Amino acid sequence: MPLLSRRQTIGLILLVLAWGINWPVMKVALREMGPLYFRALTMGLGALALALYFRTRGLRLLPHGWGEWRAVVTLGLPNILGWHALSIIGVAQLPAGARPRWASRCRCGRCCSRCCSTAKSSPRD
């Protein structure tokens, strides 16, 4: 018996491609608009798509009662607003092609000018 069904494998491949394409698209979009404006635009479009999906399925979209609203705010502010705002500001601050030091290791196990050129061309020196 296979570990993943054909449908699950296709879904996983599409998810990986969407995630991988997402970061370069954000970098290009940030050349045209500010990071928080970009994130507000994408979150608004995502909310609209989700509302349309819920409406076509006949599902309830808004929370009912104080307890549900409190859960949405408690989970939503740090998880959605905080993460999106901080990640998009971080992407805007990174130069294109930048990589962290730990990703610049050479054959000796550390980044050095003796045996590799990454030490000379590292953008973070």
Estimated helix fraction: 55-70%
> Measured on Cα atoms, how large is the radius of gyration?
21 Å
Q: Structural class, from secondary structure content? A: mainly alpha
Question: What number of domains?
Answer: 2
* Average predicted confidence as pLDDT: 80
Could you describe the largest sheet, including whether it forms a barrel? Answer: none
* Strand segment tally: 0
Strand content: under 5%
Unreliable residue stretches: none
What distance separates the N and C termini? 51 Å
Q: Please trace the helix and strand order, writing H or E for each element.
A: HHHH
Count of runs of 4 or more consecutive helical residues: 4
Give the overall silhouette. Answer: extended
Written account of the structure:
This protein starts with 5 loop residues before the first helix and ends with a helix. The chain folds into 2 domains: 1-61 and 68-94, no CATH class; 96-125, no CATH class. It is extended. The chain is mostly helical and 125 residues long. It contains 4 helices and no strands. The protein is 64% helix and 0% strand.
